[in-house]
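Narrative summary of target 7.
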Amino acid sequence: MTQDMPFMARQIGRRLNPVKQGGKPRDVAELVTFLCTPGAYGISGDTIRVCGQGLIGA
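Modeled conformation, tokenized:
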């Protein structure tokens, strides 16, 4: 998801990130799965960032 960013920018972002990683495609898939469940009924019109606890590349 950050492949278009320069390599060093990605590495610095990962080091500054609390979980030491960026968002992964699986994280997006899990969010989409959750949004399809009844538990997500009240969520609408929101921006949900899947970014590994950081906003690198956002």
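The chain has one domain: 1-58.
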